[in-house]
Amino acid sequence: MERSGDDRRSAVGVWVGNLPGPLAALGRFSITRYLLASIVSLAFDVSLFMVLVAFAFDAGISSAAGYSAGIVVHWLISSSFVFPGKSRDGTALQLQRLGFVGTAVLGLGITVSIVSWLTGLGTLPVVAKAAAVFVSFFVVYIMRKYGVFR
């Protein structure tokens, strides 16, 4: 798994790029890499959400805790795999992290609002969470692609 000096991909990016045939396409576009990162982050998010709901925590608070855990995982994956070579140094890195956190807070607001609203209408928490995930995924991806990691 050798990388040339101008290869901006992370080790994971190189590994995905070396997958056979159609699987290599997973790493070709930032939206597919973002989708993979989101799936991993969502697994952390939903797992914590479901555990907290099972212990009778409020669905809105549970969604906030799950989403927050997912944010940390997503930063680690986004900065090294989704948008390789787009990370900054020094002050610019701090501003990039701030932008990432800002988009995460936006996604958190979308998620908590939708989950709270839909569960208040009697929707099952997991269905409300699914609707929130769909909306926040696209809003946050666009903001990160064209703002945070431009």
Helix content: over 70%
Class computed from helices, strands and strand pairing: mainly alpha
Order of helices and strands: HHHHH
Radius of gyration: 17 Å
Quaternary state of this entry equals single chain
Percent strand equals under 5%
The structural domain count equals 1
Q: List segments where confidence is low: pLDDT < 50 over at least 5 consecutive residues.
A: none
Number of strands: 0
> What distance lies between the first and last C-alpha atoms, to the nearest angstrom?
27 Å
Morphology = globular
Query: What's the overall average pLDDT, rounded?
Result: 81
Main sheet summary: none
Number of helices: 5
Keywords: Membrane, Transmembrane, Transmembrane helix
Pfam family, one: GtrA_DPMS_TM
Protein name: GtrA family protein
Membrane topology: Multi-pass membrane protein
